[in-house]
């Protein structure tokens, strides 16, 4: 075999994660006197894709000491990729300066690896500088470049540039870029754009229904809750129950509860609480306090007493807020004896009660 064929064999071994065989092929080529820059590059790329950054850098040092070989632009591209993936930005930039010093002709891989490195480190300004450098030079960007920039703009929340980049590669992204679509959905969800829901729902059409992602399901629940889209929120909640997805954060549960409250949907709240308890979702007092407020203002008082029993069943004690909700409900319904009983409980637990709280 010649050096080119050895390099192909080394890369093939690396793709199979057979590092030992890749190293053996490299050494065999050296014994036969056909150790070349491309064989060094091949083994460096094997170390790169298998997460062996130290081995990759060590082999690069061997290459620089080898009097029969010189590093090529491909060699430096591999180093930039390794350092960028590890967020070793200083090393990545030092490698780039060495390329400029040696006056090597940079190719699209050089720019893409630099962009990816800055993207990984969330250094958006530097990412943009490399992209503008590319656009003003002789090298043409490729699909990978646009996809990287789209991800960068989405992660940085730069919606204008994200949408501009998406318009260039929308066909490819819609067909193959589920992860990028997810990034865009996250970007919209964090924005304050008036039409963010419409844009998110338009993107959701390109995600196959069988490709379910729990985090995306929860994100939609939270978003619909904030927008008071009760029906859509409940559809997303039902999907979560069907897939066994659990919500484990109080903040999202409070968003859901607030939507039921603002939409005055006490029966739907009741059903949701029962299903959440059964499905192992996080249980917080706000769930039951909301039911207390809603039953206290419009439902039979017996329903409010039942809520207290539910709290006891899930081992949630009455707090000052619980008792104040009950006090106000009894006051508004003219239940003087229950008002006194509730005030007595507040005294019993040591909660301060204003003198004006006593009924006349």
TrEMBL record:
**Which parts of the chain are PPR repeats?**
107-141
Pfam families in UniProt: PPR_2, PPR_3
Q: Which UniProt keywords apply?
A: Membrane, Repeat, Transmembrane, Transmembrane helix
Q: Which residues cross the membrane?
A: 73-92, 104-124
Superkingdom assignment? Eukaryota
This entry's Gene Ontology molecular function terms read: mRNA binding
**Family stated for the protein in its record:** Belongs to the PPR family. P subfamily.
Q: What is this protein's record name?
A: Pentatricopeptide repeat-containing protein At2g30780 family
Organism, per UniProt?
Answer: Cajanus cajan (Pigeon pea)
